[in-house]
Amino acid sequence: MAKTSSTPSRRRAPAMDPDKRRAMIVTAALPLVIEYGASVTTAKIARAAGIGEGTIFRAFSDKDALLAACMAEALRSDDTVAHLASISLDQPLADRLTEAAEVMRGHMARIGAVTGALAAAGRLERPARPQPKEGDSLPDREAGLAAPRAALAALFDPDQEALRLSPDRLADAFQLLLLSAGRPGAPAPLTDQELVELFLYGALTRPPAAR
User: Fold this and answer.
1) Domain boundaries along the sequence of the chain
2) How far apart are CA 26 and CA 75, in angstroms?
3) Treating both helix axes as pointing N-terminal to C-terminal, what angle do 192-201 and 93-120 enclose, rounded to 10 degrees?
4) Given this model, what pLDDT does residue 28 score?
5) Measured between alpha carbons, how far is 67 from 138 in angstroms, rounded to an integer?
6) Using CA atoms, how far apart are residues 100 and 51, in angstroms rounded to an integer?
7) 3-class DSSP state for residue 29?
8) CATH 3.10.590.10: does it fit domain 18-185?
9) pLDDT classification of 85: cutoffs 50, 70, 90
10) Is the distance from CB of 59 to CB of 22 less than 8 angstroms?
11) In the chain, what are the helix, strand and coil shares in percent, each to the nearest 5?
């Protein structure tokens, strides 16, 4: 009688869609890029992603293309916009903006971490050679700011009658304030609540006395 093995035969996992594979690799690479900068090895990234190193080079033309994809992913605002859109409009405007400030500053912190890591190694420039695959090029900065700005404008809409300016102009100014407050080397960074109170009510606790 033939002896049968008690160990079930291993089945090969179904092939992953190329775009999903690239996204999976970038997700694994991002925290390593922040930690090690451009010196992170593709072997380390492969281990973090649970794949062979060769899989990386089937998904990306070279390491520069992978680093460019990591920068592009850091600049993507999809998750940020989704979080802004989920903020309840039933809250007072100050609470809405405080929540929005936390979301936006988290997004900018991630951009700053990846940018700083790559800039320190002189690897921040757009890859020029070889030409990266579709999806590797860095997105336009203004385009990356437009969607969050529109989501911020929606947070002002319920209070239009009480606003000094249009929601679009206020969203632009609020976004600019957040960008300025998060610049490197800013002394004693303001809290989210302080930023919102300064934006909504100004620097004075009460109107100045008439002369």
Assistant:
1) 18-185
2) 13
3) 120
4) 94
5) 10
6) 37
7) helix
8) no
9) very high
10) yes
11) 65, 0, 35
Dihedral of CA 30/36/38/43: which sign?
A: negative
Q: Which two tokens stand for residue 191?
A: 């809290």
pLDDT 10s digits, 158-178: 999 999 999 999 999 999 999
Closest to 101 (Cα-Cα) out of 156, 152, 146, 165:
152
Instruction: Reduce the DSSP state of residue 123 to 3 states and report it.
Output: coil
Measure the CA–CA gap between 45 and 159, rounded to whole angstroms: 47
Q: Find tokens 């934006």 and name the residue.
A: 199
3-state secondary structure of 75: helix
Tokens for 120? 């320190």
Q: At what angle do helices 192-201 and 167-181 cross, to 10 degrees?
A: 140
What is the residue whose two structure tokens read 């407050």? 181
pLDDT, residue 14, reads 53
How far apart, in whole angstroms, are the C-alpha atoms of residue 66 and residue 74?
A: 12
| DSSP three-state, residue 79 | helix
Cα(34)–Cα(23) distance, integer angstroms: 17
What is the structure's pLDDT at 138?
Answer: 42
109: closest CA among 183, 30, 191? 183
Q: Which residue type is seen at 175?
A: Q
* Structural tokens at position 123: 């690897």
Closest CA to 158 of 60, 71, 87: 87
